Amino acid sequence: MGRNSQRRRSARQQGRGTIDRPDVSEISRARTAKRLRADIAEWLADPSKGPGGSFIEGDNPSDPVAVWAVLMHWLVSAREQISAQDANNAVDWVSDSLGIQKDDLLRAAGLIGHPDAPDGTLSEAMEHYGDDPLHFTLYMLLLSGGLVATVGGGEPDWLRQFDLTG
Question: What is the DSSP string of 91-144?
Answer without folding.
Answer: HHHHHHHH---HHHHHHHHGGGT-TTPPP--HHHHHHHT-S-HHHHHHHHHHHH
